[in-house]
Write a structure and sequence with these properties.
Number of strands: 13
Domain Endonuclease GajA/Old nuclease/RecF-like AAA: 32-459
Organism: Blautia obeum
Distance between the termini: 56 Å
InterPro entries: AAA_GajA/Old/RecF-like (IPR041685), Bact_Antivir_Def_Nuclease (IPR051396), P-loop_NTPase (IPR027417)
Structural class: alpha/beta
Radius of gyration: 29 Å
Strand order of the largest sheet: 5-4-1-2-13
Protein name: Cytochrome c biogenesis protein CcmA
Length: 479
């Protein structure tokens, strides 16, 4: 069965087999309780604007990535997480996270531990010293600068850290006033440990494409954090090109390593007087190998075999003379090369699947994978046999870049099992692409859990038609 046949097969929405069973977010924006059960592999939620869909996905992403410092910028009262076949329901409050982050910061900055003072309490003390600040609900830039300066001065804290603490306080002021109890950081430590143990998947997050820069700003991610968060999809094509180059170099390295090891094995055979078994040499080459395969394995060893010898070997294969007894040892060498080629096949298949999947979405262009030269290029349609005009990844449309970025993560970067989170996948995609996207993600056989929120009915106008759910049904008014 060819790859293209596989890509047309129907995808079944199976039972979720990851350890993640449930996530609840309570008191979101001081208004909503959200409870999300993960019963199936594919979880599609439909929701109108104003329900906080993006914030909900951000929360889930931060939880699974154990990036609890980012949750302090989101207004909520409590988060609950349940894992399959585990009795315990993990519960953490906003105060718990504040305490957890304070303890973590304390390990980095000893002055926080020595003063034994919560940052929020220090900010409030500064505010009490200035009545205008205490009762002013419309905070301007002057107030922010004043609090930042005073916090930095009184705690001898770097100004950028002080500003971040003040912004965090301002964003969560209502929660802090409402819930003055001291949090228990151990609750968060316990959840971090549980997630590390039970959620071993890669977490791939695809934010809303058109708002990606705004999303990054709202998430307050520093550049170094973006570099570390490899699975937070960025749409720069340099990332995709690096993934392509990396997997091609892996194949190239395996080919050269295999050739080196093969020469050692053959040398040992010949020194020891061993003869390759005629039946094995004949049957392997005859049954499993064609001309193109031999050409690929010869090309991949580069200059280790001179071009004139490669040409002669290919002529022998083409005219059938390779089967003569006098070429018994040559057949043995070719078989060793083919054995090494089989070790590279898993990487070859990933590139082929990536190219074939992306080609379903590309307009008037296509990826072409040359296994002999180990190159993956984008050709303009009908140009391959003529002047071989190619284009760069950066010349793709925004929708095409979105597709290529996603499937490069799933096919090229790693073969690890993944949990994929997508916010409004319909943006920048044509109606036909919307229908194809989720089934194609599941056909990668690399996604064990998919969570997406959407406005568009075309996203689930496919085999997942009956799996889409209204998000409002999972939201209650917070009491």
């Amino acid at each position: 069965m060819t790859y293209k046949n596989i890509y047309e097969m129907q995808v079944e929405n199976k039972v979720n087999e990851t350890n993640l069973e449930y996530i609840g977010i309570f008191g979101l924006f001081g208004r909503y309780d959200i409870e999300i059960p993960f019963d199936k592999q594919v979880n599609i939620f439909i929701g109108e604007n104003g329900l906080g869909k993006t914030t909900i996905l951000n929360c889930i992403y931060f939880i699974l990535e154990k990036n609890f410092s980012r949750l302090t910028n989101i207004q909520f009262s409590e988060i609950k997480v349940k894992f399959k076949n585990k009795e315990k329901m993990y519960k953490i409050s906003h105060a718990d996270i504040m305490e957890y982050n304070r303890e973590k910061r304390g390990k980095r900055y000893k002055y926080l531990l020595e003063r034994e003072m919560d940052i929020n309490e220090m900010i409030e003390r500064i505010m009490f010293q200035n009545d205008d600040l205490l009762f002013d609900r419309e905070w301007g830039e002057d107030n922010l600068e004043y609090l930042t300066y005073e916090l930095s001065r009184q705690l001898d804290m770097p100004i950028n850290i002080a500003r971040r603490q003040v912004l965090n306080y301002m964003n969560n002021r209502d929660i802090i006033f409402k819930n003055k109890r001291k949090g228990n950081g151990n609750n968060v430590f316990d959840l971090v440990k549980a997630i590390s143990e039970y959620v071993t998947h890669r977490i791939i997050y695809l934010p809303t494409y058109r708002r990606i820069e705004d999303d990054f700003a709202s998430l307050n991610l520093r550049s170094e954090e973006l570099n570390k968060a490899e699975l937070l999809i960025r749409f720069g094509m340099s990332d995709v090109q690096m993934s392509i180059d990396r997997i091609l170099e892996k194949i190239r390295s395996l080919a050269m390593k295999g050739f080196t090891e093969m020469t050692g094995v053959l040398l040992k055979q010949y020194v020891d007087g061993e003869s390759p078994l005629e039946e094995k040499s004949y049957s392997k080459l005859y049954a499993d190998t064609d001309y193109e395969t031999v050409k690929i394995v010869l090309d991949r060893v580069g200059k280790e075999i001179e071009d004139s010898y490669k040409k002669k070997i290919l002529n022998l294969v083409s005219n059938g003379e390779i089967w003569k007894y006098e070429y018994l040892y040559l057949r043995n060498l070719i078989n060793k090369l083919i054995d090494n080629y089989e070790l590279q096949k898993a990487y070859d298949d990933r590139i082929k699947k990536f190219a074939d999947t992306c080609n379903k979405y590309l307009n008037d262009k296509f990826f072409h994978y040359n296994q002999s030269t180990l190159s993956l290029e984008i050709f303009l349609d009908n140009e391959l046999k003529d002047d071989k005009r190619t284009i760069e990844l950066t010349q793709l449309s925004s929708g095409e870049k979105q597709i290529v970025s996603l499937f490069s993560k799933l096919y090229l970067e790693s073969n690890d099992r993944s949990i994929v989170i997508i916010d409004e996948p319909e943006l920048s995609l044509s109606l036909q692409w919307q229908k194809m996207l989720l089934p194609d993600i599941m056909r990668t056989d690399n996604c064990d859990l998919l969570l997406t929120v959407t406005h568009s009915p075309f996203i689930f106008e496919n085999e997942f038609d009956f799996d889409a759910k209204e998000m409002r049904k999972f939201i209650k008014i917070y009491k």
